[in-house]
Each structure stands twice: as C-alpha cells, then as structure tokens.
Design a protein that fits this description.
This protein is α/β, with parallel strands linked by helices. The protein has 7 helices and 17 strands. Strands 1, 2, 3, 4, 5, 6, 7, 13, 14, 15, 16 and 17 form a 12-stranded mixed beta sheet that branches.
C-alpha cells in the first residue's frame, strides 16, 4: 500500500539531507589535524590514486618535530595491524606517515611492507637521527647516505682460528690495559642477501638511493635550504640492530669500513624498498646525545621538506 507524503514532510527530508551534505563538506581534506589526533578512516589500495610517498620514523622526537614544523597537512588515518598510518600532504605531495617500533629493526621492514601492500607508493623516506663515527660531522648536520651496510651480520670465529680465518674485528687488539690473547676470538663481517628484481644478490655496501631523480634532488637540498643546515652527501652508513655507545667500536667501523654514521634500522627499510621496487631515501640528523635530539630532529625535518619540494611527484590541488 502506498504511503502518502505531505509537501511539508518532503521539505523536512530534503533539508535534513542538505545538512548532512554540509557537514561532510566541512570535514574536507584541507582540515588541519595533528599526526597524534588524525581523522580515522579506512583504506583501499587503488592504482588509479596518485602515488604517495611513505614516511617512516621510529623516534618520538622526530614525530614531535614534524608536528611542530607545520609542514604536514593531515587529512585522515587508518589503523592496520597495530600501526596508525596518517594520510596528508607535504608541499602538496601525497604522504603516508607512520611511526614504527624499532626494536628489533625488523619492525621497520614489516611496517614498510604493510605500507606497500595497502597504499599506492612511489617511494619511501626514513626520517630520524644517527651517530657520527668520526669527528668530521657536526652535531645538528643532516646526512643523506649514499651507501648502507648491515654491520650486524657476523660469523663469530673461534679463539683457535688460523690467522687467515680471523675476522676483521680481532678482540686481542682491544685488550686493556695489557695485550695478549682473548678468548672471544674475532668477528668476520659477511655480505647481506637482498632481493633485487625478484632475485637474491649478495652485497656488503648497498646503494641507499635507488632513483637517479631522487639522488639529484638530494644533492640539491643543501643549495635550496633557506635556513642554515649543513647537509652531507655521499657517505657510508653502518646499520645494525644494536645501540652503539662504544667509542672504540665507532672508530673500528670508521677505520675498517669507511662508515661515517651509524643507526639501527636503515638497512631493514632498505630491504623492504628493494623488495617492492620502491624509491628510497634516508635522512639522518647527526646526534651527539639525548640533549640535542630535538634540534637534530628539527633539522632533519627541514631537509625532508626541501627534498619533497624538489622531487617530481603528483601534487594535491590547493
């Protein structure tokens, strides 16, 4: 049986619909939100959507610096496997941001894979800070490494190993105050296995910037930065799943392998980028201790902002 609807009732329904549409329009993508309090949503990967840049941090100070900089304009977020992925823009470029657990470093690789599986990515940037291994780098400068090695892949040789079988790290050389034999023997550093274009390759030093365009933009960051931040390029980064606070070991890494900086998670991110054939970049502020982390993180964010401005990516309309 048909139900009669009066003109007044029809007008009431139409007005309610207009109110709903108006509320939706107010919650537009230009809404300024924090990465800590984003607008929750859902995600469905689509190849038709503009490619985004994945941005991964592991330190709270870096998230704080990103928030305080005001460069990240947040639209929404989605929860995936315990991680909050925040969607927004930097310099008009589409960004998928996440703060990942870092201990062990495998967490970063897993987070990158979740991101690659659920979002249409054009590349990934790791933002954070690392330690200088020699005196040539100043606290507060920002390093964009050209090479990364996993310096936690070892064969621990026995005490009685023949001289030709000894590893690069010989514990007898670090006896103090007296020399002599050391039951710890030596450590031999091995090459890492990396999936490149679906095939496993073994390498010790792996290129940290996979894209030529991103490499050129990285070198331009120091020229285009308005504020005075020293940006250092072309260096080697030693990445291992351990906190490095030992000066003797820092000098060993520098003298033996030529590494200038060290961190815990860059190589894990590099593996995920190569596996998914994604462009990749590491931006590391040089830290000298806990007291400088806020300043170091702020400098790293400035370099990130300039780099994203320089690269060629789809931009959101203003």
């Amino acid at each position: 049986m048909a139900v009669a609807v009066t003109r007044r009732e029809r007008w009431t329904v139409e007005m309610a619909a207009l109110v709903v549409v108006g509320l939706l329009a107010m919650a537009s993508p230009t809404m300024q939100l924090s990465v800590k309090k984003p607008l929750r949503g859902t995600v469905q990967k689509s190849s038709e959507e503009p490619r985004s840049i994945g941005l991964i941090v592991t330190e709270i100070c870096c998230e704080k610096a990103l928030n305080e900089s005001g460069i990240f304009h947040v639209n929404s977020s989605v929860e995936l496997l315990g991680r909050t992925f925040v969607l927004g823009t930097i310099q008009g470029a589409h960004i998928v941001y996440v703060r990942s657990a870092s201990r062990p470093a495998a967490n970063v690789g897993i987070t990158l894979q979740i991101m690659a599986d659920n979002f249409n990515l054009g590349g990934v940037i790791l933002l954070g800070y690392g330690q200088a291994l020699n005196d040539s780098l100043s606290v507060g400068s920002v390093v964009i490494p050209k090479w990364i090695a996993a310096t936690g892949v070892w064969i621990w040789q026995p005490f009685y190993a023949e001289e030709e079988d000894e590893g690069q790290l010989k514990f007898t050389e670090f006896n103090y105050p007296e020399g002599g034999a050391n039951l710890l023997g030596s450590v031999e550093y091995e090459k890492s296995q990396i999936y490149v274009n679906g095939k496993v390759k073994e390498t010790f030093w792996t290129p940290a910037i996979i894209s030529l365009e991103w490499l050129r933009a990285a070198y331009k960051t120091s020229v285009h930065l308005v504020e005075s931040v020293e940006v250092v390029h072309g260096l080697k980064l030693a990445s291992a799943d351990m906190q490095l606070n030992n000066e003797a070991y820092k000098k060993f890494l520098y003298k033996t392998f030529g590494a200038s900086t060290a961190d815990t998670s860059s190589f894990a991110g590099l593996l995920g980028a190569y596996t998914n054939n994604l462009r990749f970049l590491v931006v590391r502020g040089v830290s000298g201790g806990e007291n400088e982390t806020d300043m170091v993180a702020a400098n790293a964010v400035k370099v990130l902002d300039r780099f994203i401005f320089l690269i060629s990516v789809p931009r959101a309309s203003s």
